[in-house]
Amino acid sequence: MRHPEQVVVDFVQQWLKKADLDLQAARLLCAGELDDYFVSGFHAQQAVEKYIKAFLVRHQIEFPKTHDIGRLRQLVARRDATLAERLERADVLTPYGVDMRYPEEFEVVSQKNRRSKQ
Q: Which of 34, 43, 82, 103 has the highest CB neighbour number within 10 Å of its CB?
């Protein structure tokens, strides 16, 4: 039987592995020739969300099923206000978690296309 602390550590490692894969996907997609960045934004949002959830699991802070980075950051602040403050800029990724995955909600275009429209 595994020690309860080891169960937590293993679960955190699972969150971190998934977050690392999302971050890797976001970087690869940003470096590619996409006409827009909604897919890379989605993976960036997912990476941040999973890194935060790994932190919350490690500190045994319960969290709701949500993709809202700001809401999760509020939970982080209970344990580490400095970290929560440093994560504030990541709030802009929240819409990429769900909203931008559906058509006609937002237009997200690459810098190259933005320059060509000017």
A: 43
